[in-house]
Amino acid sequence: MGGAVSAGEDNDDLIDNLKEAYYIRSDLVERAFRAIDRADYYLDEYRDNAYKDLAWRHGNIHLSAPCIYSEVMEALDLHPGLSFLNLGSGTGYLSTMVGLILGTN
User: Is position 64 annotated as part of the catalytic site?
Assistant: First the structure.
């Protein structure tokens, strides 16, 4: 997985391509992905790769491919009121998007 879905120019291109490939299927997951710009979780010198559907690692910083995160979020059937524990949460990108769906409670 990863690499074939997107070589987008920005976060919206990335999400559009994930939707077109049926990785993102629900409105909740789409809104979370659109609200959080993946490039904000990259070191400045690597931001040009942020909108590719690829995993990225630099030292101890790691991001999985966006298609992986979307598959996880769709499979969990997330909705407000649930709890979520992300062991080994890395940069916090996935946890932030999940948190947007679950809300403050």
Answer: yes
Spell out the SS3 assignment of 72-104. HHHHCCCCCCCCCCCCCCCCCHHHHHHHHHHCC
Contact 97, 37 (CB under 8 A): no
59 forms bridges with which residues in the sheet? none
Catalytic residue, candidates 26, 64, 89, 95? 64
Measured distance CA(65)–CA(51) in Å, rounded: 10
Q: What is the pLDDT of residues 13-58, one digit of tens each?
A: 999 999 999 999 999 999 999 999 999 999 999 998 999 999 999 8
- Say if CB 16 and CB 23 are below 8 A apart: no
Whether residue 4 has pLDDT greater than 60: no
Phi/psi of residue 63, each to 5°?
A: -130, 130
